[in-house]
Amino acid sequence: MGILLRLVRYVDNRSLWLDEAALALNLINLPVGKLVTQGLFFSQSAPPGFLAVEKAAVGLLGDDEMALRLFPLLSGIAALVLFQHIAARLLPPATALFVLALFAVNEPLVYYSAEVKPYSSDVAIAALLVLLYLRFAERDTFDLRRVAPLAVAGTIAVWFSFPAVFVLAGVGLALMLTGPDATPLRRLGLAAAVGGLCLASFAAMYRMASETISTISRVVFGGAGSNGNRPGQLVNTLHEAWGAIVDPGGFPRPTNWLAAAVLAVGVGWTLAYARPNRKALLLVPGIAAFVAALLDKYPAAGRFWLFLLPFGLVVLGLGVSELVRRSGRLLLVAVPLVCLLVVGTVQRAGENLADPPRSEHIRPLLSRLVDQWRNGDVLYVYSQSQYALRYYAECANCDVRGPFPWPVVPARNLGSGKTGEALESAPPTVIIGTEGHVLAEVAELRGRSRVWLLFTSVLPHKGETDEDLALADLDRRGRRLAELREKNASLYLYDLLSANR
Fold this sequence. Notes:
Elements: H1 2-12, H2 18-29, H3 32-37, H4 48-61, H5 65-68, H6 70-90, H7 93-105, H8 107-112, H9 119-137, H10 144-160, H11 164-176, H12 184-208, H13 210-220, H14 230-246, H15 255-273, H16 276-294, H17 309-327, H18 330-354, H19 363-372, E1 378-381, H20 386-394, E2 409-410, E3 423-424, E4 430-432, H21 438-443, E5 451-456, E6 460-461, E7 464-465, H22 466-477, E8 479-486, E9 489-495
Parallel strand pairs: 1-4, 1-5
Antiparallel strand pairs: 2-3, 5-9, 6-7, 8-9
């Protein structure tokens, strides 16, 4: 079922949204050497290994959406298979099946398995490292030869996943606490050997990708933390962490509160009763990510913490097992609890299977615009929409009717080190919006009989959106001739020559 959900989302082939399009423009326009060594444009960041794989996909399969999303899809399927083995080793059989079902239908995991971002591979890499550790720990022998697969995987993982370092922190501490028959000095030496290799690899990766990491750090931490406002950064991190606690794993409301309560029971049981190495393995990655967020070294936002889902679901499963054990009534406690947690999640998965969610489905709008474009038309492109527009203008393999009949002028900043605009205006035909100036820009469009306006990723403005404000102004000044709406994307045609009186 989990594989089917991920395949359906992939085959649905939704349009690239702002962040995906911005990263795709880097993948299409930059050689692999610059991708992994210099800061990416348009405020993007991704691990060097992920970028290299995506660049290879572009070269081998083309630059369309499905080619770009193949690696995230394979990562999502791999994570599902790996998690099955993790759950079987850490939980009773019935509980393992329960958390595997939650993992299979979890909406964030399904969604990001079809997005051109490294979040899906973050989960797969975290699961791989945990499983390799568990396979090492379940045997009696305690030597370098047996830990070699984990050491090799750890040194490679940091090149493909930024949060892999947090997982390795938990794995490293667990190694120090593994092997009751081994002396403490031997356990410490083994952990130091593995940790030293991984840290050396991480240092090399960080040095190579420092520009990429710095770019996203300036964007993510451009507020409280960068201005020295420690209390503000603490409040923001606590807010994001609380959001992860009350909604651990994308459970639909109101069952998210029940999931949070069961997760809390699982954390308590882990702290009180789990073996020391299991405590380190399951809890340290989350603690390390939280501390890094407080220090402005890692974003405190949901999708960046997706790699913690395997740990969270295992701990949630431990909470379920503990509640059943304490109550002594399997049917009276386990069945209602499992039903409450699973039914809503499965129901949402079924709804999304029939009607997959789409962030900004701009592709049909562009095809419609190509079909209905006339000489003399004007196109206003909202500031946040320019990245997807440029991607589809440059994509050689995408299913968009083209070439576009209006001029598409790439911004000269690609190669100059700036991170802002993707397109330049080509007046009077194409006007590329600037963030924060939408009302002034649409006011300059009056006097034209056919003006198209393209909106995606619309920003809020004093309780309303930029799109709402622009449409209210345009409806006063002119006449709306047509509109086409897709999910989180809109296209309008206005007559601003013969105004309504």
